Amino acid sequence: MCSVGDVVGIDVKTLSTSEYECLDCNNKFKGIGKRVKCPACKSSNVNKIG
Ligand SMILES: [Zn+2]
Question: Which domain range does residue 26 map to?
Answer without folding.
Answer: 4-48
